[in-house]
TrEMBL record:
GO terms for biological process: regulation of gene expression. InterPro entries: AbrB_fam. It comes from the Bacteria. The chain crosses the membrane at residues 42-60, 97-117, 129-147, 159-178, 190-210, 217-235, 241-260, 267-298, 304-322, 334-353. Keywords: Membrane, Monooxygenase, Oxidoreductase, Transmembrane, Transmembrane helix. GO terms for molecular function: monooxygenase activity. Pfam families: AbrB (PF05145). GO terms for cellular component: membrane. The lineage of its organism: Bacteria, Pseudomonadati, Pseudomonadota, Alphaproteobacteria, Hyphomicrobiales. This is Ammonia monooxygenase.
Length: 360
């Protein structure tokens, strides 16, 4: 092989990867547009995810460039923060009670899901335990890898759960009721200088959050900076729809493309157990959310989204798309994520013991 052929291979590979990425986004965009035409909730996100996931079983393969995440999540964080108005700040007094309820619900979700997978599905102790953890998949996989645990089965269960959350929650919450935050309502045009200043502030906050290793730093940094500017009335941080819709499509497609890592045979073997575990966890979350909503007098759909065992970024985005209080959902999802990171290592040690291979 000549040196020119060696030099050409990375270029060909990059071109192929770019073509696959563009095709995936085009397919996701078509699906999102179709869902939007049908008037379905969170259409630009869920439509792209569902259609791309279906396309993976027809042979679609793609890798999303890692460099796309920082600008994508920063812009989405800025958008969600814009939904935090001064009126929202007055409802912060409800949060301590609902956060306490969240702790109880998370513990019950883990217990119920673990018992279902261990006793009814025959999963191993480690597989059932890691699959029962609600969210924080990246951190869960890191802990499992330290124990040399096979991540295939429980990571597939996590992906399937996230898929059903994004696909089903918008329809379910639409019936349960929203908070009326105006996330999906028509917004008045925002001066370009406000948008530009807000973007600069959010980018700086995202960089700081990433450097401080805050969970979901690119999104959460921008979100809280935007929420602070909007909630105090200092700045209107709304982002125009023409910039947001591509972000929704890309995020939805990035979730759907994960199914290319799962063979149809493996999916069929794990589907019943994964869907059953999702149903068990969602049932516990719904009961807990209804109890807290009735106690505090806030919309059940809003509490359910805050308690939903899904990814931090996706649940925060759904709050915005479903016209709910993004600050309420963000605070609860972030609290759940941080709590899991803090307690997961000692709880894992208590439940599973030390790894037989010498790990903690």
């Amino acid at each position: 092989m000549t040196s020119s052929q060696i030099d050409a291979e990375p270029t060909v590979s990059r071109r192929t990867a770019l073509a696959q990425f563009c095709l995936t986004i085009a397919i996701g965009g078509a699906g999102a547009a179709g869902f939007n035409w049908l008037g379905l909730p969170a259409a630009w996100l869920s439509g792209a995810m569902i259609v791309v996931a279906a396309a993976t079983f027809a042979g679609l393969r793609a890798k999303f460039p890692t460099g796309i995440q920082p600008p994508l999540y920063t812009l989405l964080g800025m958008t969600m923060g814009s939904g935090v108005t001064p009126d929202v700040v007055h409802r912060i007094g409800d949060w301590p009670v609902s956060l306490a309820g969240l702790a109880v619900v998370v513990a019950l979700v883990m217990l119920a899901t673990y018992v279902f997978l261990r006793q009814l599905c025959g999963w191993t102790k480690e597989e059932a335990y890691f699959a029962a953890i609600p969210g924080a998949l990246t951190f869960v996989m890191a802990v499992a890898s330290d124990r040399r645990t096979d991540v295939t089965r429980f990571s597939t269960a996590h992906i399937i759960r996230l898929f059903f959350l994004v696909a089903a929650l918008p329809l379910f919450i639409g019936q349960a009721g929203g908070a009326g935050m105006g996330g999906s309502a028509e917004a008045a045009p925002v001066p370009l200088q406000d948008t530009a200043l807000g973007l600069v502030i959010c980018v700086a906050a995202s960089f700081a959050a990433v450097r401080l290793r805050i969970p979901g730093g690119w999104l959460t940094g921008a979100f809280f900076a935007s929420a602070l500017a909007s909630g105090t009335g200092f700045l209107d941080t709304h982002v125009p729809d023409w910039a947001l819709i591509p972000c929704f499509v890309i995020l939805g497609a990035s979730i759907g493309i994960r199914f290319c890592e799962i063979s149809p045979a493996m999916l069929l073997r794990l589907l019943a157990a994964s869907v059953g575990a999702f149903a068990v966890g969602l049932t516990v979350s719904v009961v807990g959310a209804l109890a807290v909503a009735l106690t505090l007098g806030i919309p059940a759909g809003q509490v359910l989204l805050a308690y939903a065992p899904g990814g931090l970024e996706v649940m925060m985005l759904l709050a915005y798309l479903l016209d709910m209080d993004p600050a309420f959902v963000a605070a609860h999802q972030l609290a759940r994520y941080i709590a899991l990171i803090l307690i997961l290592p000692p709880v894992t040690l208590a439940v599973l013991g030390r790894s037989p291979r010498g790990g903690a």
